[in-house]
Design goal:
The chain has ten helices and ten strands. With 307 residues, the protein is of the alpha/beta class. Helix 2 crosses helix 4. About 2% of the residues have low confidence. Bound molecules: S-adenosylmethionine.
Length: 307
Amino acid sequence: MIPNMDSFGFSSPVLLSAAELKLLQSLVYQECGMCFDERREHFLQDRLQRRLRIRGLDNFSSYYRLLTSPEGKQEFTALLENLTVNETSFFRNKPQLELFQKVILEKILQQKQARRDWTLRVWSAGCSTGQEPYTLAMLIAEALAYYYLRNPLPFSMPMTKPLIPPPWRVEILASDMSYAALRAAQEALYVEHQMEGVDYSYRLRYFDKVGDRYAIKSPVRELVQFDFHNLKTEFLPQRNDIIFCRNVMIYFDEAEQKRLVKKLWRCLNPEGYLFVGHAESLFGLTDQFQMTHLNNGTAYQRTEETV
Ligand SMILES: C[S@@+](CC[C@H](N)C(=O)[O-])C[C@H]1O[C@@H](n2cnc3c(N)ncnc32)[C@H](O)[C@@H]1O
């Protein structure tokens, strides 16, 4: 089908009726929890036009039929990829990362060592192009090296020190619902302007320069496992000591935020910690977490009252 053309041969936007817009909003909401209310309607319309153009369709009802058909799964994925905001950076929100590394991680490592549990599980939920989970990997590696200096383990270390000193095992799971973001994250190559938050000591230790890009070194990459997870679903990774879910629920409405926070509670080990974005808060969403606030950094600890 030929898209609507104006007299100059340019395709003109397909105008959606209020009912069609509502239908699209609710499809997207049901699939991934993202809420496109009046403030973000324009963005939704704009991205829809792109998909219509790519598909060569000139009306919404054909597109809707495609989306909801068995063959429409791929198109739905493409539409959602167009709707996600993947903005991220290395060492984003430094005060919060200080709280994570210097206080919370330290406490968790001590508790784990006391009970001879040497596995640390961290989940970056909504990891975008990987800067967040790789930042966590670097911070954890540094913390463990420092921790090891002060708390010698009851056996000798190999001569060439591994990034994670044994017997510790660090598993960082990083997930997103954008395949494009996950592919970029796995590629682990970043250009200069993406390196803004990375100081020179980190660049030297954890990156290789490849042409004009920076590649994350293999030992750091190997700490991070990438996977597809849609946070709207119930099947999410369990038994995490720490979850970072930052700047994701900002795109959800309050009902969806409440559902997500309940699920994240279940995905944490008892007394585990949840970190949300700078502009996000659990206030009014739950009473299953207790807030820790220090030097401008905030974290939420799972409390054990069952609801
Ligand atoms: C703004 S980025 C945040 C990246 C990183 N957490 C940070 O704070 O820098 C939001 C990410 O959440 C992902 N996202 C949005 N809705 C999602 C959902 N329902 N399930 C999984 N990921 C989702 C998007 O694809 C995007 O990569």
